[in-house]
Each structure stands twice: as C-alpha cells, then as structure tokens.
Design a protein that fits this description.
Elements (H helix, E strand, L loop, with lengths): L3 H7 E2 L4 H10 L5 E8 L7 E12 L2 E13 L2 H4 L5 H9 L4 E6 L6 E5 L24 H13 L6 E8 L5 E12 L5 E9 L2
Length: 198
C-alpha cells in the first residue's frame, strides 16, 4: 500500500490538484469523486486516465480507494504538469537544501511534495519503522504551528526548528516554515517549507 504522496508522485492531476488535495484533507467517509489525470509509470509512456476515488475512514486513518480507467496515450499538452508562473516562483524560492510539501494540518502528514522530495527522511511507506517520524521533543512546536496555521489569516506563517526521522534511524533538524494554503471553499492545508540546517 502506498502513502498518499507516493501515489501522487505518479499522477499529474493538472488543474484538478487543488480539488484532489481538498478531498484528501476534508472529505467525509463515503465521499466519491471522478477526476482526469495523467499517470507516469516506471519507464513507460505517460497515459491519460479517468480516476474514481472513494474516501473511507478506517481505524482513525483516511483511506482513498479507487480505480483508474486508461483512456490512451497522453499528449504533450496533457502530460505536462500545469506549468505556470506559480511553478516558476516555487522553483526560484527552493534550492538544493529546501523542500516544499502540502501537509494535512490535522494528521500532520505530507500529502503532496511540490518538486523533489527529500530522499533521506522517512516519508515513504516502505521506509517506515516503529519510530515516530517527528521527534517527540518537536511535537509541541509542530502542534503549535499547525494550530496557528489552521486558524490564522491566509497571509500568516509560523517557523520553528523540527527534527525529522531519517532513514538511518536518527533525527535530522530542519527549519520548518508553515503557511496556510487555501484549497478553495473546501478547506485549508499547510504549505510547508523544510530547509536543512547547514
């Protein structure tokens, strides 16, 4: 089973991405939705698909179950990510020491990596161990940041140093800045920048 950001690595939702993230964060049990996307599979040609997704709440987790129906080879227009001025701005603001993620402010789970995700911290399901992904000493700061971003004006942000579990089983400190990310009328996520301490 994949984590949500792992599944979204293969799927380009284009202009549907805000809708999809809102569904992941706020949809009630039993909610279903159809979306169109482009799927990138290992080494293969990008394919256009229709997705049907149903949200289920099981044992405290939000699970997305669904099916995809392939409708053909993706054209260059449909296979390109929705490159826009916002993509260029994000590229200019991040560097080799920083990463950008959309985070569910309630579960504190990264649900979407914007750009290249860090390869050494534990976020993929295959790397998970019994250790907390956020160091217990960092949890009060993380919860405080989450609460302030959930309730703050859309222009607000919060910053702190947070330790995240790395694949070696130790914790790596990052400067974390979280800002509110409006997903339209459907809810709010956190736009989180992780910057490595030098």
């Amino acid at each position: 089973m994949w984590s949500i950001p792992e599944a979204l690595e293969m799927v380009d939702l284009g202009s549907n991405v805000a809708d999809a993230l809102a569904i992941i964060i706020d949809a009630p049990h039993g909610y279903s939705r159809q979306l169109q996307a482009v799927v990138r599979r290992d080494g293969g040609q990008p394919r256009r698909v229709n997705l049907t997704v149903r949200v289920q709440h099981e044992e405290g987790d939000r699970i997305l179950r669904g099916i995809s129906h392939e409708v053909g080879v993706a054209t260059p227009e449909s296979s390109a990510a929705a490159s826009s001025l916002s993509d260029l701005v994000v590229g200019a603001l991040t560097n080799s020491m920083s990463y950008l993620a959309v985070v569910d402010l309630y579960s504190l789970e990264a649900i979407f990596w914007y750009g290249t995700p860090p390869d050494d911290i534990v976020w993929r399901s295959e790397h998970r161990t019994g250790l907390d992904r956020i160091h217990p000493d960092s949890m009060p700061a993380v919860k405080s940041m989450s609460n302030s971003v959930r309730t703050a004006a859309i222009s607000a942000s919060a910053t702190d140093t947070i330790k995240l579990l790395n694949r070696g089983g130790h914790y790596t400190p990052f400067v974390v800045t979280a800002a509110p990310l409006s997903l339209g009328t459907s809810g709010r996520a956190g736009l989180v920048t992780l910057t490595r301490l030098r």
